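During the no-cost extension, the postdoctoral fellow (Dr. R.K.) reprocessed legacy sequence entries with the updated structure-token encoder. One reprocessed record is reproduced below for audit purposes.
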Amino acid sequence: MWPLLGIAGVVVGFALRINPLIVIALAAAATGWGGGLAPVHTLEAFGKAFNDNRYITLVFLVLPLIGLLERNGLQERAKILIGKLRGATAGRLLFVYLFVRQICAALGLPIGGHAQVVRPLLAPMAEAAGDAQTGGLSDEMRARLRALSAATENIGLFFAEDIFIAIASILLIKGFLETNHIIVQPLQLSVWAIPTAVLAFIIHGTRLLLIDRRLKREKKPDA
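Re-encoded structure tokens follow.
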């Protein structure tokens, strides 16, 4: 049970709002110590994990581009575009994005992302649609639409990516099951991920469509 010290460290560190980088580093060190690893071996594990997942740092190449586009009016253009579409509502917009995001995740197509799509495009478009529906969003509803935009990205990716057979999570699940003498093929795991993705789409999609009803109730009389 000693290796579980790292989990306790993460919980306590986040509860105290300590710098996440420091919390994770100390939690990993505690887990290594609890597992009987020497400090050098724990450091080696850090290095190996960073090297194996170095492609993740590519996001830092995208962020300057997104920042430059935002500075030159990307969000404003997105709002103007959605304002020109007849029948566009915040709920329908997010519902369509959820569908597209799940299909692309299931096929392994790397589109979407909070920094690349949600902040500069999806959330502003949802807000613009909400403004058109209500004549002006309240601060609470504006925050809710931003949260739903982020949630749509998370749910669309998380529950559909395991359908793609070559995703790392499938290999992780397969490896874990094999250590417990349960032999499965990646294709079997992918197939059984489909019902979960479908349910996630139905549940969250319903939430997105219901938001239009709430926006309709908040419509200003002169809008």
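The mean pLDDT is 82. Residues 2-52 form one domain. The remaining legacy entries will be reprocessed before the final report is submitted.
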